């Protein structure tokens, strides 16, 4: 039988809770209660053919607590007059939370509403749309409101988040709740206090005018004749701004003509000496730190990445910043010479990469189509070092 059971009724009320409809009723303009619950009843035929089962079902339904059962009198040609449940009603929120055992949760939510009405009433609409999430945040809600208040009173502060001084709140709290704070701040702050171009939790600081940890560029000088700093390692890290100004250094202006970019740190550290050259540690997607360094465009650039779909995607992205960059050891000959070192790429890409050369694109498409093997990749650190030396010798010719 498919008649509604007492457990079905409780499940229906639970679903209303899980979807936030019950909590949101405290903020709805239109009355949400009383609310009729779906009820599947025995048919007239079932009433006669399964009378005992129907009688047990009626008793079960009538025993359900906190729901109002409306009965209906039916006339049956064999059984005569009988009264069966006709509709089930959830009359109010108290009945719902009593049925579900959620009185403590309702108290927390009510307290959350009270503090919000007093401190930031504009956020009540966000709570109405996200009541379950708000309840999950109930323990942190007063602190979240304090952060919202502080940023409202100190718009675009121009300091690091670590410098925000709110009693009982540290920067880790703000960092760990960036997504929620963005949703709240966007409702509280005027438009001129928000950088709409900065989106996503990772750009929280930029969106609301905090100082950001500066982007950094790590590079090595490959020519011992170029002296930027004392020492032999010549492994240097500069902020984006300082790297931008590096082109004004006489040693760079007069001596550097080639830039190599590699993704693997060991390859970066062991890259062979090369006249008039630097090697940059790429470290994956994202080349914002290079975007303002106009002096790089006066150098011949080479990118050495993995031979896999992501390696070519990174090369494609790099060319948005440095269009003339050439690839190094990212060709079919290198791939086939290292069959013993082939591996598997976990999540290959299949994008249409517009900035690859025809030769690069053919290899990229072959990797996408699994022409050499399923999800094949050759990591750059598995390429024989003599191949690198030979490639560099050919560049000098």
Describe this entry's structure for a reader.
- The protein is an alpha/beta fold and 397 residues long.
- It is 42% helix and 14% strand.
- The strands form 3 sheets. The protein has a 6-stranded mixed beta sheet.
- Strand 2 and strand 3 form a beta hairpin.
The tally of helices reads: 19
Q: How would you describe the shape?
A: elongated
Task: Classify the fold: give the CATH topology of the largest domain.
Answer: Dna Topoisomerase Vi A Subunit, Chain: A, domain 2
CATH class of the largest domain: Alpha Beta
Briefly note the structural class of the backbone. Answer: alpha/beta
| Mean pLDDT level | 92
Task: Give the low-pLDDT segments.
Answer: none
How are the SSEs placed, and which strands pair?
Elements lengths: L5 H13 L2 H4 L10 E3 L6 H6 L1 H12 L5 E9 L3 E11 L2 H8 L2 H17 L4 H6 L1 H6 L4 H13 L17 H6 L1 H11 L15 H4 L8 E6 L13 E5 H6 L4 H6 L2 E5 L2 H6 L6 E5 L18 E5 L4 H13 L4 E2 L4 H5 L6 E2 L13 H11 L7 E2 L7 H12 L1
Parallel strand pairs: 6-7, 6-8, 8-9
Antiparallel strand pairs: 1-3, 2-3, 4-5, 4-7, 10-11
């Amino acid at each position: 039988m498919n008649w509604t059971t007492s457990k079905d009724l409780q499940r229906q009320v639970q679903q209303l809770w899980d979807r936030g409809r019950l909590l949101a009723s405290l903020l709805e303009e239109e009355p949400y209660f009383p609310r009729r619950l779906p009820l599947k009843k025995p048919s007239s035929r079932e009433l006669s053919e399964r009378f005992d089962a129907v009688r047990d079902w009626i008793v079960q339904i009538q025993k359900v607590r906190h729901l109002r059962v409306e009965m209906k009198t039916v006339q049956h040609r064999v059984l005569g007059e009988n009264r069966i449940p006709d509709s089930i009603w959830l009359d109010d929120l108290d009945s719902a939370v009593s049925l579900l055992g959620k009185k403590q949760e309702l108290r927390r939510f009510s307290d959350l509403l009270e503090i919000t009405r007093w401190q930031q009433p504009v956020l009540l609409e966000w709570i109405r749309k996200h009541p379950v999430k708000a309840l999950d945040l109930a323990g942190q809600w007063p602190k979240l409101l304090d952060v919202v208040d502080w940023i409202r009173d100190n718009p675009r502060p121009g300091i690091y988040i670590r410098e925000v001084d709110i009693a009982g709140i540290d920067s880790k709290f703000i960092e760990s709740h960036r997504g929620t704070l963005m949703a709240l701040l966007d409702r509280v702050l005027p438009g001129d206090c928000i950088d709409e171009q900065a989106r996503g939790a990772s750009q929280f600081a930029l969106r609301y005018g905090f100082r950001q940890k500066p982007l950094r560029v790590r590079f090595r000088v490959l020519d011992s004749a170029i002296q930027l700093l004392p020492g032999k390692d010549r492994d240097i890290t500069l902020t984006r701004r300082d790297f931008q100004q590096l082109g004004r250094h006489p040693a760079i202006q007069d001596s550097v003509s080639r830039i190599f970019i590699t993704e693997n740190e060991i390859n970066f550290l062991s890259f062979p000496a090369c006249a008039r050259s630097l090697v940059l540690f790429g470290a994956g997607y994202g080349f914002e730190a290079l975007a303002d360094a106009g002096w790089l465009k006066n150098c011949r650039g080479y990118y050495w990445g993995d031979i896999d779909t992501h390696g070519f995607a990174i090369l494609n992205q790099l060319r948005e910043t440095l269009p003339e960059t050439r690839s190094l050891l990212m060709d079919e000959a290198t791939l086939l010479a290292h069959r013993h070192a082939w591996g598997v790429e976990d999540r290959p890409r299949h994008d249409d990469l517009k900035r690859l050369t025809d030769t690069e694109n053919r290899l990229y498409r072959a990797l996408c189509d699994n022409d050499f093997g399923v999800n094949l990749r050759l990591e750059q650190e598995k390429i024989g070092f003599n191949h690198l030396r030979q490639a560099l010798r050919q560049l000098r010719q």
